[in-house]
Amino acid sequence: MNDLDAEDRLRFEQLVLPHVDAAFNLARWLLRRREDAEEVAQEALLRACRFFRGFHGGDARAWLLQIVRNTCYSWLEKNRPRELMVEFDEELHPQAVATPESIAMADEDHERLTRALESLPPRFREVLVLRELDGCSYKEIAAITSMPIGTVMSSLSRARRQLYSVLTNSYHKEAAREV
Amino acid sequence: MRCDFADSLLQGYFDRELSTASAAEFERHLQHCVHCSVELVDMDLLSERLQLAQLYESAPASLRKKIYADLCPVTHATVISRPLLWHWLAAAAALFLLAIAGWKMNSVPSTDDYQVELAEEIVDAHVHSLQPGHLTGISSSDEQAVKGWFKGRLAFALPARDFANEGFALQGGRLDVVDERSVAVLVYASTGHLINVFVWPRQGRDTSSQVGSRQGYQWVDWRKGRMEFCAVSDASTSDLQQLQRLFTN
């Protein structure tokens, strides 16, 4: 990262580094594993630093998260391409990692929500994470994901409905088991 | 069955992203659409659950370290090349400070140490709560609504009070974890500062308050009626003490 001069480096530290938490959080939810998230977030920060001169003001968090997101997707394509196929027929093939049973069996709500969120296709997961965990506006989500605002809204709608149904199905199964 | 409005306006209405005109249009629709009103409640429940579960994961220290190492290899090199004398002076100064700290630690009772450690953890929790979406599980200035929200989530009754007239407006509350147990947090706003008041049950007599500060945040801790309170904010200590008086009177 040495190619930044002192002034740019200071600007990078002040504008971009405060969003390292958000960067890691997004990577963690897109990749679902903390170790991978750490590696990819570091790579994304390196890229952000390398191309920082191209950033001329504006929303630094959205800019960084866009880079994190793209780095995550390209990492997934290289390392776990099957996960990216899921979105085409997510109704038929929910992700294998979290099953309704494993969600129902989780002790804590934290665990249950984590697994339910991880069971959503990445494109749904990311809008929920950006909106509900990061508090991003639609405009910011549109900038980060390069989607039109209308698509942001409909993805959120489907993501929420799907998460809600995953969670309530798991509750029903749990209730049925107890009877 | 789904309503046509569901995909377009419902989300925007829920997320407060609609223009005033669209929001008014949607509210007119809401008056006679059971489907949308139920879906709004579901979305609210889901959102509250996501907030409560604290799913946000902050960057681990190891990542920060790596990023700083990537960013500042030059600075590391300059530190090493400084004259040796500085190292000796720095080491001597550090030893001196350690000696003073050791002497100070020994001279205060251990319960105070515990309280200071606890306050530090609470300051960290305060800083964490300032991240988007982490401040409140319920946002309301209504005492009854806040009390109602905590009821069933806590094993103790919470003195949720609004002091808006005295300059501390109740913003809502949430659950947090401090010292490995669940605590209640009341959130106040006072002239541009956010104040978190952590509350949990505690045996023993009422005590006079302790104050301190850490990383630019002030804290005031007191016990009253078998409860411990710790108020944290970037507001001044005297502001926090004023809030304490409102609680204890």
List the helices and strands and how they pair.
The complex is a heterodimer of chains A (179) and B (249).
Chain A: H1 6-15, H2 20-31, H3 34-50, H4 60-79, H5 81-85, H6 100-105, H7 109-118, H8 122-133, H9 138-145, H10 149-178
Helix pairs in contact in A: 2-3, 2-4, 2-8, 3-4, 4-9, 8-10, 9-10
Chain B: H1 5-14, H2 20-30, H3 34-52, H4 61-71, H5 73-81, H6 84-107, H7 110-129, E1 138-139, H8 143-150, E2 169-178, E3 181-190, E4 193-201, E5 207-214, E6 217-224, E7 227-233, H9 237-248
Antiparallel strand pairs in B: 1-2, 2-3, 3-4, 4-7, 5-6, 6-7
Q: What's the multimeric state? A: heterodimer
CATH C-level name of the largest domain in chain A? Mainly Alpha
- Looking at CATH, the homologous superfamily of the largest domain in chain B is MucB/RseB, C-terminal domain
Helix % of chain B is 40-55%
The CATH topology assignment of the largest domain in chain A is Arc Repressor Mutant, subunit A
Structural class of chain B: alpha+beta
CATH fold-type name of the largest domain in chain B: Phosphorylase Kinase, domain 1
Which structural traits does this protein have?
heterodimer, A: 179 residues, mainly alpha, Rna Polymerase Sigma Factor, Chain: A, Arc Repressor Mutant, subunit A, B: 249 residues, alpha+beta, Phosphorylase Kinase, domain 1
Structure description:
The complex is a heterodimer of chains A (179) and B (249). With 179 residues, chain A is mainly α. Chain A has two domains: 1-79, Orthogonal Bundle (Rna Polymerase Sigma Factor, Chain: A), CATH 1.10.1740; 88-179, Arc Repressor Mutant, subunit A (Orthogonal Bundle). Helices cover 73% and strands 0% of the residues of chain A. The longest helix of chain A has 30 residues, at 149-178. Chain B folds into three domains: 5-52, no CATH class; 61-106, no CATH class; 109-248, Phosphorylase Kinase, domain 1. Helices cover 50% and strands 22% of the residues of chain B. Chain B has a seven-stranded antiparallel β-sheet. Chains A and B meet through helix 1, helix 2, helix 3, helix 7 and helix 8 of A and helix 1, helix 3 and helix 4 of B.
